[in-house]
Amino acid sequence: xxxxxxxxxxxxxxxxxxxxxxxxxxxxxxxxxxxxxxxxxxxxxxxxxxxxxxxxxxxxxxxxxxxxxxxxxxxxxxxxxxxxxxxxxxxxxxxxxxxxxxxxxxxxxxxxxxxxxxxxxxxxxxxxxxxxxxxxxxxxxxxxxxxxxxxxxxxxxxxxxxxxxxxxxxxxxxxxxxxxxxxxxxxxxxxxxxxxxxxxxxxxxxxxxxxxxxxxxxxxxxxxxxxxxxxxxxxxxxxxxxxxxxxxxxxxxxxxxxxxxx
Length: 262
Known about the structure:
mainly alpha
């Protein structure tokens, strides 16, 4: 029976597919770490109190990248080059979602509107990350090789999502509500398209590594298209709602360190 658990177990059991999975994950997390670090450095003076939280967000993402690299090293594997069609963060930037890297590479302070754009982008992408890690935690929280990493990363992603909700609500109460809703809707609709395209690309690469039949590849592709159809019709709305989280100040304090996996 084809299920999310059996699919990931197959990827986990094969060195080449596992290496590709971890390489893609490590690259995306490391990119997120860099982006947040640059945003923290460029926060406008009026929002300097937010800088430590953004820096903590970036430190967490960078830690996740190190964790995925450590998981590969534990199996004696080296990272592989990430195929461009599986690069989620790069493709989002190409669609104009989030803050452009050219802006982040400069020294000009960001505006409050830029910070709102960053938080809206993060609220959408952290929703996806939180859901994906929750699925892995459901099936692999007790796995001897990846369980500890899955639990740690999942908890961090939940904290990131809570932080985005709290900070966006603060900006909404300060008069930025309409801009936030526009940014959230634009980002959500773009993200679901990018996520569909990346999912199709990842499954195509995995299928070649694992020798999947055309029939199996077609079933998986149909499932991805079905998810997109649902998200395009209504599912995207879960990415644009804002609710005060139970956990307040989720990114207060320093980031936790990455565990050893040797």
